[in-house]
Amino acid sequence: MQQNKTLIRHLKNERLETIKPGYRGNKTIDGRFANGNELYNPDFSKVLRWQLSRNPQREQKKLDHYTPHVQQGKEFIHDNRDMLVWLGHSSFFLRLGGITFLTDPVLFDLPLLKRRVGLPCQPEELRNIDFLLLSHAHRDHLDKKSVQVIFQNNPQLKALAPLRVGDILRSIDPHLPYQEAGWFQKYDLVPDEVEVYFMPASHWHRRGLRDMNKVLWGSFVLKTREHTLYFAGDTGLAPHFEEIEQLLGPMDVCMMPVGAYKPSFLMQKSHLSPHEAVKAYNLLRGGTFIPMHYGTYDLSDEPPSEPVRLLEQIAASGMLQGLRMPAIGEPVLLQELI
């Protein structure tokens, strides 16, 4: 009886520049993307173990009502200066060289997951957005309603996304233009004022019942003449940080995820704890550290204020030189960070 052979392919967008010499593209094993060379299938017996076990910080979490402060206002939408504005979770409004980006837009409650904190303005008021940056397709990073609302109010919008995300985007709105990239590739839809690169992350994909790792995940680097910004998406601690720094670093600003890290037996391969995020930031030779992926949705076991307290402790120890924790809606002007 003939055995089935494992099908290994390497995929990339052949029309785009690949900046890593000799890189063949993202490895797929039987149609599923790998984390580098290894296929990572999250063990859902660990999810069951998590659901059936008692959180050792349960009482502490129950008494912790922390939410990030929200600075109300929409003036930043019409401000032409280079800036970033955190909108909660992993959503940022970025303006660079007169071009505006919105990362991982999740602006509403999600199914079975209520948003714990508001926005500085109504989602419909977010205008003048040129590009969506989509790091991966988990529902707390790629939300159908958020994308539809943003596109309705920004008809010029284009999406910069990972390989094989197209079916999802077409199901959200068939008229939304998009470009897919693999790791180490440079998008070519962006005007010359800003270079945008899709870079690695250590994560996974699942959005439906039968699509495990069928869509790629990653991070972004944005470069202008003055600044280099890194948006980590979702990631565990892995060797890709050193590689990103070697190719495109150092990073003036690092937008780093610091929440949803407990229990570690479930989260460690795909999320960063605050200590791990700081280690990654130092590997990137980062300037300003902007935390994200905390305080907006309840995804894990740690109390909501714990990432903030740990970052403050790490900064006080001297291991984190450039910590900046803006309120949701607070503009951070890049010219003031240099």
From TrEMBL:
Superkingdom of this protein's organism: Bacteria
GO CC term (a single one): cytoplasm
InterPro entries xref list: Metallo-B-lactamas (IPR001279), RibonucZ/Hydroxyglut_hydro (IPR036866)
Boundaries of every Metallo-beta-lactamase domain copy: 101-294
Protein name: L-ascorbate metabolism protein UlaG, beta-lactamase superfamily
Organism: Pontibacter chinhatensis
